[in-house]
Design goal:
mainly alpha, Growth Hormone, Chain: A, about 200 residues
Length: about 200
């Protein structure tokens, strides 16, 4: 990864570089290459899975039979719900420290950036447990309300004309968002087998 990022190993395929200044010295870096270098490996793994993982005789199905899933409205709805929870805490894992560093330049958010994703991963089983006892739809609905409220509450801690803001309050609201996303991921995951078992 360092060769790809600092050396532009992917050449024109990696796109344009960014300028990074450290200690007065400016360096060109290709941050996007950290992701691009995995594309060939992912492609090989996908092809291998397609060719070699269809070997269970009792579950053989052609593409047309598998494509029937696209006709189920529940499949589309569950995809959006799952993206809304799992996608949120994965996306926030990357975006949150950059957001904090931009809004509060004096704070090095990368020192504690791991806490949010770690909490979300740890509380994921709690979402499934709550869904078993209360109901997946109820828990997921409540979680999305919390996920909408937490960022709105975080705006109360932003810097403004009357002060420099409150970084601890801002971070706390985003930790609530991480926790909600983790619990919601567990509850939506629990809903999937129940919904599709009913459809069958």
């Amino acid at each position: 990864a360092p060769i790809a990022i600092y050396g532009g190993a992917l050449l024109v395929l990696g796109g344009s570089p960014q300028s990074h200044t450290d200690g007065g010295a400016t360096t060109q870096i290709w941050v996007q290459n950290a992701g691009f270098i995995w594309v060939p490996f992912i492609a090989v793994a996908a092809i291998a899975a397609y060719l070699g993982m269809d070997n269970i005789a009792s579950v053989k199905a052609g593409f047309a039979e598998q494509a029937a899933i696209f006709k189920h409205k529940h499949q589309w709805l569950m995809s959006w719900l799952y993206i809304g929870t799992f996608g949120s805490f994965i996306g926030l894992a990357a975006g949150f420290p950059m957001l904090v560093n931009t809004i509060f330049p004096g704070v090095d958010a990368f020192q504690f950036a791991f806490i949010g994703p770690l909490l979300a991963a740890f509380v994921r089983p709690i979402g499934g447990w709550l869904a078993d006892r209360v109901g997946g739809a109820v828990i997921t609905f409540g979680i999305f309300l919390i996920m909408a409220a937490a960022p709105l509450a975080a705006t109360a801690f932003l810097p403004g004309v009357n002060g420099g803001g409150n970084v601890m309050g801002f971070v706390a609201m985003f930790l609530v968002l991480f926790l909600a996303a983790g619990i919601g991921n567990g509850s939506t995951f629990r809903m999937i087998p129940i919904i599709f078992r009913t459809l069958r």
